[in-house]
């Protein structure tokens, strides 16, 4: 675990390169560290799917350290097993003998609103206090969210002592959804009570490729536009941005590559279809030791510059190169340390 060392950071930052012209400065007007650095966010990096039709996997899910567990009633359950899977999941989530994960970690992916299974899923599972999040598949526009919300709202109005609101994650699976993503992210049901809120966007890459006739490749460049747009809109509306599934189950290097790409694009987490994928996802969607050290240096030097009444400074790297430090970079450093604290990589006290 890294610890903030102000004195050590100052020594490194006072070192000047051989060529002073390399140093770039910017006036910061006495920027101070935002108070939000002390606010530890709740991390939701890994979203592990668990088929609700498989009792063994339901029980095994209690052992995973995934930030979010998605108990699935849709794609991983064949048509003939839908009713049985729903019954098994209800029993599992309401069994007083089972010690479930914290409520914030439990999500359920229901069947699409266009299917005959959706209303049954809602009637059976919505209102169980152990569930914090509902993943809604095949959301192609605002109307799909409205049509999903109405029966959910109706059920919750009849549920006593529900610990709401319910989080809704919209699954982006089609060209239409991508074109209408502004309406999806701006969705707010105009009902009397806000029983559920949109909390995230999830990219269903395989469905999207099927809809758009895109051919998947190992470098996934064909999905750059869609992924960038989803991540950007999610961030604009302060929603979680959840990246696609890595289907290469036995290729850890491919998973690592996808995770790193997702983080660079601004995604906050990634879906997993096997427990072995979880650890890589958890470790990638947090700042590295080098990123933490750099952020600490920036904030330490910023505080020193403000204290001395100086409005400009440059950051010198280990290689001797220097870079301009401006206010957006200070914000980035603050966010880096907030995430590091949430992940337990630096102390919170």
Automatic annotation (TrEMBL):
Its cofactor is Mg(2+). One of its GO terms (molecular function) is lyase activity. GO terms for biological process: oxaloacetate metabolic process. The lineage of its organism: Eukaryota, Fungi, Dikarya, Basidiomycota, Agaricomycotina. Pfam families: HpcH_HpaI (PF03328). Substrate binds at residues 109, 173. Residues 45-275 form the HpcH/HpaI aldolase/citrate lyase domain. The keyword Metal-binding applies. Keywords: Lyase, Magnesium, Metal-binding. This is Citrate lyase beta subunit. InterPro entries: Aldolase/citrate-lyase_domain, Citrate_lyase_beta/mcl1/mcl2, Pyrv/PenolPyrv_kinase-like_dom, Pyrv_kinase-like_dom_sf. SUPFAM superfamilies: Phosphoenolpyruvate/pyruvate domain (SSF51621). Mg(2+) binds at residues 173, 207.
């Amino acid at each position: 675990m890294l610890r903030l060392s102000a004195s050590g950071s100052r020594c490194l930052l006072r070192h000047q390169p051989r060529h002073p012209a390399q140093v770039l400065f910017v006036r910061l007007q006495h920027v101070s560290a935002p108070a939000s650095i002390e606010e530890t966010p709740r991390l939701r990096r890994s979203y592990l799917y668990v088929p609700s039709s498989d009792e063994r996997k339901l029980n095994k899910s209690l052992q995973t350290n995934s930030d979010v567990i998605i108990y699935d009633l849709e794609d991983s359950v064949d048509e003939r097993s839908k009713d049985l899977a729903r019954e098994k999941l209800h029993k599992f989530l309401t069994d007083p003998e089972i010690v479930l994960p914290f409520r914030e970690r439990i999500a359920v992916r229901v069947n699409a609103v266009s299917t005959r299974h959706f209303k049954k899923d809602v009637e059976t599972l919505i209102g169980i206090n152990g569930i914090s999040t509902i993943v809604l598949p095949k959301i192609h526009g605002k109307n799909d969210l409205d049509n999903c919300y109405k029966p959910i709202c109706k059920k919750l109005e009849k549920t006593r002592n529900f610990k709401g609101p319910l989080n809704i994650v919209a699954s982006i699976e089609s060209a239409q959804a991508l074109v209408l993503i502004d309406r999806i992210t701006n969705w707010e049901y105009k009902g009397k009570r806000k029983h559920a809120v949109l909390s995230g966007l999830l990219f269903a890459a395989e469905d999207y490729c099927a809809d758009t006739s895109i051919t998947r490749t190992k470098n996934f460049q064909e999905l750059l536009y869609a992924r960038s747009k989803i991540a950007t809109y999610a961030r604009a509306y302060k929603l979680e941005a959840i990246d696609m599934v890595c289907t290469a189950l036995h290729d850890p290097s491919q998973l690592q590559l996808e995770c790193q790409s997702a983080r660079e694009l601004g995604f906050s987490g990634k879906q997993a279809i096997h427990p072995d994928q979880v650890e890589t996802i958890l470790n990638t969607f947090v700042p590295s030791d080098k990123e933490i050290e750099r952020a600490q240096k920036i904030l330490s030097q910023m505080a020193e510059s403000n204290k001395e009444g100086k409005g400009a400074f440059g950051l010198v790297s280990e290689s001797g190169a220097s870079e301009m430090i401006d206010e957006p970079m200070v914000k980035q450093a603050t966010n880096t340390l907030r995430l590091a604290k949430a992940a337990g990589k630096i102390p919170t006290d």
